[in-house]
Each structure stands twice: as C-alpha cells, then as structure tokens.
C-alpha cells in the first residue's frame, strides 16, 4: 500500500477526468496528496507544467516522482500497480477490451456534446448535440446489458473501469438537464442506466466526489462569459487579419482539463 507522500494528484474539483482518478484511488483504498489547480488555470502551477509539459492539463498522477497523464491511462496504471487490491479493469481479456472501447466512445462523443451545449447561445443550436447525447445513452443502455451480465454495474457486482469512465460525467449531466430543462437519462428509454446512475453515485468509492450541481452551474456560467468573449475576440482579429488566430485554449481548458 502506498504512503500518502508517494502518490500525488494534480487536479481540479470540477473536472470529470480528475474525478475518475479520485474514484480509482478510492477503489484501491490509496492515500494521496491532492494538489488543486486554479479554477481558470491562470496561471498554471509549475508542478503541472513540469509534470505534463506536452498538454499542461489535469489530471496528472505522480507516483514515486514519476508523472502519469491522461485519465484512462491513469486508471490502468493504478489498477496494474496496486494489483492486489480490488480490480478496476475486467479480468477477462474480451471484457477488458470491450470496457476500453466504450470508455473511448464516451470520451469521443459524450463530453464534446456537453461542452457544446453549454457554449452555444441559441437554443436551436443545442438540439443536435442533445440528439447525439441521446444516441449515446441508447447505445450505452445496450452496452450495460452486455457488460453487466445482469449485475448492478458495468463492472459486474461492483463499479469498474467503464462505470468510472462514464459515471464521472454525472455531475455535469445534472447541470445540463437542469439548466436546459431537457432530460437525457429517462427511465422510459434507459431504465437500466437510470438505476445504474443512482447506484453509482451512492457507491462508497464515489460518495462526495461528484461535484454538487449548484456549484457546477455557477462555474459553467462564469466559463460561458469567458468562452464567448474569447470567441468574439478571435472573430474580430480574424476579420482584420485572417492569418491570425487567438489561442484561447486557456478558456477551454478550464472546462475540458484533459485530452482523453
């Protein structure tokens, strides 16, 4: 078992990708030192820039002074390094590949739509993103039946890799459903996922880690102002000089603090 000084986590309370890592550390009953980045990454800490010089984004797990980046990679590292504790990835090779496939699918489809829904100003422009999210839910409902094999979680009797990958977004999903008055997880269409979400949030490894909806709403409204100001500035500069592009990644990284 690791000492607290051996394991460090650089993250942000609002990041679903950081939440993944915290849940994984809880599953393994690992103590760790938490380093919280500034909410807008302005400025980014020296520790973050030294630990992830390529992307400069969270989460970063530091184990024995060695940095590991990318949330899904970190989950696998935790599972393999502390292999004597409860497993996170399925033991069966095919089940393991299946879990990785769906986790990658979630990162490619789910979160970009959530970000777009919050960013756009016109209600009509949100519709296609909601439709994609509903399609994802439909596919994940089917995936749950296959992966869970009739048990409470994607991982079986207890939460595993895919549960953590998908469930970490439930806080931001609540923001979207409440702010835009459109339910994505609906019992009539996805009864298994609705019940799964309730079980996931109540799991001992998860309790207290999914950010409160009210706090996320406050953050999302602040970020909307920054994003839109950045987009307007970029558009203005490009009108005057089409070859110029403003780097507004700092604004985006406040909400998308990981390249999955």
From TrEMBL:
Q: What class of enzyme is it?
A: transferase
Any one of the GO BP annotations: toxin catabolic process
Which GO terms of the cellular component aspect does the record hold?
cytoplasm
Q: Which Pfam families does the UniProt entry name for this protein?
A: GST_C (PF00043), GST_N (PF02798)
Supply the EC number(s). Answer: 2.5.1.18
Q: What's its catalytic activity?
A: RX + glutathione = an S-substituted glutathione + a halide anion + H(+)
Q: Which domain of life is it from?
A: Eukaryota
Looking up CDD domains in the UniProt record yields: GST_C_Tau, GST_N_Tau
Q: Which GO terms describe its molecular function?
A: glutathione transferase activity
| Keyword set includes Cell division | no
Q: Which residues form the GST N-terminal domain?
A: 5-86
Describe the location of the GST C-terminal domain by residue ranges. Answer: 92-229
Q: Keyword set for this entry?
A: Detoxification, Transferase
The entry sums up its family as follows: Belongs to the GST superfamily. Tau family.
Q: What is this protein called?
A: glutathione transferase
- The species this protein belongs to is Pisum sativum
């Amino acid at each position: 078992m690791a000492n607290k000084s051996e394991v460090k986590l650089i993250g942000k309370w609002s990041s679903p990708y950081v939440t993944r890592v915290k849940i994984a550390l809880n599953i393994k009953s690992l103590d760790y030192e938490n380093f919280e980045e500034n909410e807008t990454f302005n400025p980014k800490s020296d520790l973050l820039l030294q630990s992830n010089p390529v992307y400069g984004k969270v989460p970063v797990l530091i184990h024995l002074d060695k940095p590991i980046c990318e949330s899904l990679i970190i989950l696998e590292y935790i599972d393999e390094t502390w292999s004597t504790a409860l497993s996170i990835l399925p033991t069966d090779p095919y089940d393991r590949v299946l879990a990785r496939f769906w986790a990658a699918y979630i990162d490619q489809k789910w979160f970009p739509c959530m970000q777009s829904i919050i960013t756009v100003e016109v209600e009509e422009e949100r519709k296609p993103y909601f439709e994609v999210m509903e399609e994802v839910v439909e596919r994940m409902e089917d995936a749950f039946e296959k992966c869970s094999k009739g048990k409470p979680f994607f991982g079986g009797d207890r939460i595993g890799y895919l549960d953590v990958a998908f469930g970490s977004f439930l806080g931001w999903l609540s923001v979207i459903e409440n702010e835009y008055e459109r339910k994505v997880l609906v019992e009539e269409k996805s009864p298994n996922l609705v019940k799964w979400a309730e079980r996931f949030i109540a799991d001992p490894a998860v309790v207290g880690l999914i950010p409160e909806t009210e706090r996320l709403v406050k953050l999302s409204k602040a970020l909307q102002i920054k994003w839109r100001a950045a987009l307007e500035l970029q558009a203005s500069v490009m009108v005057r000089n089409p070859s110029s592009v403003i780097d507004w990644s700092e604004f985006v990284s406040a909400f998308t603090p990981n390249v999955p």
